[in-house]
């Protein structure tokens, strides 16, 4: 179990450092910044690379909403849920700290309200309100679970799941960055909110509740599409697990 938790820690650490790091350090550079497209790709690439690197160890969740959705789908043992969540949040917070240290090496940088934070209303990149943010996070997380469960299901060519999942997360970001700055991952939101402060802390509850609801909804949708009984003995790998 310890190896699985270490893998989840590392995977979530890389997701937050790579995705949020791209947003904080590279997105806004004048003339050569990577913009929304680059940030979207960064998040997708972090998941894809870590799924290949450690997915065979822990299942490659890197996201409390994914772990919860897989549990609802019957593909993850519920007794492991809280330890996975703890490892994921710890990895995200550690990445937030590393990013905070790096970013503050630039003269005049302030992480307050400027740290790849998730939010709605005045904290939304596009000024979208609470209901828009709620619907976006539920729907995007639900579709993410459908992609994960479909890409790791029986009959799908082995070894390609991380690519589909990574591209799926990229697409999710392309759609929803203007609305909430895209969470679909409570650990990701927590890891930067603790260092960005302000409204990100006050609104953090939404970026736990909505993705968890979305994860459960996605699992239910997939179970209707693929009603085969799943075993909960091992977490599904997003790489080559034969029963995923």
UniProtKB/TrEMBL annotation:
The keyword Membrane applies. It comes from the Bacteria. It comes from Tropicimonas aquimaris. It is a multi-pass membrane protein. Its main location: membrane. The chain crosses the membrane at residues 32-54, 81-103, 128-151, 158-180, 200-222. Pfam families: MIP (PF00230). Coiled coil: none annotated. It is found in: Membrane. Keywords: Membrane, Transmembrane, Transmembrane helix, Transport. The keyword Calcium does not apply. This is Aquaporin Z. Belongs to the MIP/aquaporin (TC 1.A.8) family. InterPro entries: Aquaporin-like, Aquaporin_transptr, MIP, MIP_CS.
């Amino acid at each position: 179990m310890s190896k699985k938790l270490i893998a989840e820690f590392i995977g979530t650490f890389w997701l937050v450092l790579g995705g949020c790091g791209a947003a904080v350090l590279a997105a806004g550079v004048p003339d050569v910044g990577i913009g929304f497209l680059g940030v979207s790709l960064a998040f997708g690439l972090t998941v894809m690379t870590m799924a290949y690197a450690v997915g065979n160890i822990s299942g490659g969740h890197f996201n409390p909403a994914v772990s919860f959705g897989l549990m609802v789908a019957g593909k993850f043992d519920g007794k492991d849920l809280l330890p996975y969540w703890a490892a994921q949040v710890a990895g995200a917070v550690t990445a937030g700290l590393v990013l905070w240290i790096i970013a503050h090496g630039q003269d005049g940088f302030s992480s307050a309200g400027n740290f790849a934070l998730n939010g709605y209303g005045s904290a939304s990149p596009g000024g979208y309100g609470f209901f828009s943010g709620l619907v976006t996070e539920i729907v995007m997380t639900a579709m993410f679970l459908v992609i994960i469960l479909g890409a790791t299901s029986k009959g799908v060519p082995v070894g390609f799941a991380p690519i589909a999942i990574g591209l799926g997360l990229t697409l999710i970001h392309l759609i929803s960055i203007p609305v909430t700055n895209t969470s679909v991952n409570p650990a990701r939101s927590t890891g930067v909110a603790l260092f960005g402060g302000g409204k990100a802390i006050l609104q953090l509850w939404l970026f736990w509740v909505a993705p968890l609801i979305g994860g459960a909804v996605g699992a239910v949708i997939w179970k209707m599409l693929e009603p085969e009984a799943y075993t909960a003995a091992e977490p599904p790998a997003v790489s080559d697990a034969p029963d995923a």
